[in-house]
Amino acid sequence: MEELIKNIKQILKSADLVYDNQDYTSATMLYFKAFFITLDYIILKKQGKTPKDHTERFRILEADFPELYELLDRNFPTYRQTYSTTIPKDKCEEIKKDVKETIEKYNIPINN
């Protein structure tokens, strides 16, 4: 679990740096990576295991964390768009906000 927290911190720090350089597509990708690790941390805390891929993560969230499933499902098309289009600043900021609010809501200790 400590490794996941360390990864969340490191990736968020990188995402914020890239965001500050106005590369919103790359920042969005990094915020999503931090979001996936955050979700895996939440799942690990409750179920004692982490999902092996996106499909399993979606399935677990849908069954056991419907609010998080809805959040991920709503945002996932943006993640897929990062591979083929430029992400605008406002869309990047939405993802950034959702990730940071999820971290706060689930009391993930990234500020230690």
- Portion of residues in beta strands equals under 5%
Number of domains: 1
CATH class: Mainly Alpha
Averaging pLDDT over every residue, what do you get?
A: 94
Number of DSSP strand runs: 0
Can you tell me the overall shape? globular
Q: The CATH topology, please?
A: Four Helix Bundle (Hemerythrin (Met), subunit A)
Any idea what the CATH architecture is?
Up-down Bundle
Helix content: over 70%
What is the helix tally?
5
Radius of gyration: 13 Å
**CATH homologous superfamily caption:** Nucleotidyltransferases  domain 2
- Computed structural class: mainly alpha
Sheet with the most strands?
A: none
Short synopsis of the structure:
The chain is mostly helical and 112 residues long. It has 5 helices and no strands.
State the main characteristics:
Four Helix Bundle (Hemerythrin (Met), subunit A), 112 residues, mainly alpha, globular, 78% helix, 5 helices
Structure description:
This protein is mostly helical and 112 residues long. It has one domain (2-105): Up-down Bundle (Four Helix Bundle (Hemerythrin (Met), subunit A)), CATH 1.20.120. The protein contains five helices and no strands. It has helices spanning 2-20, 24-47, 54-64, 66-81, 89-105. Helix 3 runs antiparallel to helix 4 and helix 4 runs antiparallel to helix 5. The protein starts with a helix and ends in a 7-residue tail after the last helix. The mean pLDDT is 94.
